[in-house]
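Q: Second attempt. The first request was missing the SMILES, so the protein and glutathione are both included now.
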Amino acid sequence: MLKIYGHFLSMPANKVRLCARYLGLPHDYIHIDMQSGEHLKPEYLEINVAGRVPAIEDGGFTLSQSDAICKYLCALSGPSRFYPADIKEQAEINQWIDFSSQHILQAVGRIFFNRVVAEMLDEKPDATSVKTGENMLSRDLPLLEAQLKDRDYITGDHITLADTSLIAALEPSEMCGVDLAPYPSIVKWRERIMGREFYQRVHKRFGAEMSA
Ligand SMILES: N[C@@H](CCC(=O)N[C@@H](CS)C(=O)NCC(=O)O)C(=O)O
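A: Got both inputs this time. The predicted holo structure:
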């Protein structure tokens, strides 16, 4: 059985979980308790030498890096409209996946880490890093808003790996004070996806486990 290792506050790990759930791939989800240092224990380092989540294990094969994992899961599942074989369609989805990982996730990650996670780890928040994250978002969210203005999903009328990747990158918005209200098409697109069954099987709300 495919195993996915993650943590409920990890955006890259949730990206992988959303992809696996969308594809309907049977798997076991294993929570790695990073606060107690489980990600640095020898058992976990055998799965991911970098000591980070997410990672997967599939019949002795191990893989890390969320985007590589998602593409592997899509390959396991076979070509579909979610991640098509057509090279131009696939390249366009990859373009948005890179945009998501390199720009949106990096920016939200800075804000989320300093406003929420730092305190949990007894680390001093870095206001300059938050400002950099906000500046990055003020450049990139308008691009996403423009892309979604006339489309239900990032590349057209159906959901793809670009959507689940971007949704994961924006998940902590409410928790860390990233205001999406100025971006009505992004707000509607998020609601469209977060209401779907595959999403709700991962979680109804990012971070809900903290108050459970
Ligand atoms: N580029 C990686 C990022 C993975 C990553 O940085 N994971 C964080 C949690 S969000 C982690 O495990 N951090 C633990 C550490 O750095 O010690 C991916 O996309 O999978």
